[in-house]
Amino acid sequence: MKFVLVTGGVVSGLGKGVTASSIGVVLKACGLRVTSIKIDPYLNTDAGTMSPFEHGEVFVLDDGGEVDLDLGNYERFLDVTLTRDNNITTGKIYQSVLEKERRGDYLGKTVQVVPHITDAVKNWIESVAAIPVDGKEGPADVCVIELGGTVGDIESMPFIEALRQLSFSVGPDNFCLIHVSLIPVLGVVGEQKTKPTQHSVRELRALGLTPHLLACRSAQPLLANTKEKLSQFCHVPIANILNIHDVPNIWHIPLLLRNQNAHHSILQQLNLLSIAAPPDLQAWTKMAETFDNITNSVRIAMVGKYVGLADSYLSVVKALLHACIACSLKPSIEWIAASDLEDDSANLTPEAHATAWETLRNAECVLVPGGFGDRGVRGMILAAKYARENNIPYLGICLGMQISVIEFARSVLGLERANSAEFDTQSPDHVVIFMPEGSRTHMGSTMRLGSRKTLFQTHDCISSKLYSNPEYVNERHRHRYEVNPEVVGFLEEAGLKFVGKDETGKRMEILELPGHPYYVGVQFHPEFKSRPGRPSPLFLDKGRIKGDCEGYLPCVVGSIGLILAATKQLEAYLNTHQNGS
Asked: How high is the pLDDT of residue 372?
């Protein structure tokens, strides 16, 4: 097994995840099989209980793992299916070591950070790296490891030591370290400053790790004298100093690395030049350049509660991007804080309220994503009502689906106090209830998580047609509340149709409103399986949407249907597809 370690220095948020993913893309384009591991030094066991405001979205895997959002980047870029063990946290490591200590596995020895914690990290990395994630037999050729945080953080010290030991045990031909650092430009001086990177590399070397390549983040391309200074003071050859400057979209990053021969430097360090082919990134290049040349856009109102941090909905944003590029459009996402739509929201100014409603009314479609807690729920209900009554394409994901049920029960069934048990425990009309197997005392991993089947109840519906009329689909879930099965009959009699259910028939998975251009709610999260560059079987077998980005339609029902409906193409597309032309 060959290992590529990606570390970060100076500041967080430099894009180590995208850099690591892009390195994987380039190596994969050379004909190598690639897997990925993300190390998060925080004490949480996983990302499941962390606030989206602080840490961004919680990404959910097929096996139900709640993991860091960077694993979403790995899956989208590399087209792989990772496991919960591909995300290592301090909490997981210490938990496993303490469990062994309680069992007596250490035979009375004093349990210490070195060697017990560091050995646990090394063993975890080596065992997980051997798990195939690309659907093929046998382990991958290269494992790309991203170490979260920045070099020098107290939390990451045990991992740095474990990785130092790993580099020694596997040998120099099997280990390549790439350090991502910042090259700032001070406004007054106007000069690219290398000193922060010098200090960061010095800190890394003091801990026993020497970078083989530098990946320098900057606004503009690095100047020749900047590279020379970095090479001289960081002991890295100029050819191994990569510059990841700002680009129009992140799909250019693998191309940027390829153009700087990053693959050659990495393959040379790993002694893989003899078996690797020149990187074939033609399809990736087409995708990146196509998006740059698109001029038309579609206005999408994103009504949520975590809109202050775009990373809170990262996968939703990426799914919309994938869908839009398939339709030769750029997404123009208008963020609306759900509470701003409410008349009596605390600390809301009349100007913010008016702006929120003006944004909603000017949108071509409305999307209400998932979330937890009652803040902003009334605003989401108002957004769902506006979309339903005004024939505006609407997609509700997880909480967004439950919101559409609550709104319909109130407005159409006349149940004024209809609500979710999550928001109002005293309501006489709980149309959304707590799941029987859920826990009210423990938050972590107590939800309905991971890939589950959704069986279509009819093929005469928009969702089934978008999925190419299968008997069922597998999508990822993350929820602890669900539509009350006792009210389904009343809702359907009033016109709302549940066209997708679980295998028991008691859990509602997909709802639609017949007669509406596009009013769809899904209990699952289709955005977690949206990937660029992987065409849906729908368009491989029976024709594709025509355009410059032909062949890049992801296998996602929600976002592509929403965009087609917003641009008045849905009916024509469904008719064309149903005719097999």
From this structure: 87
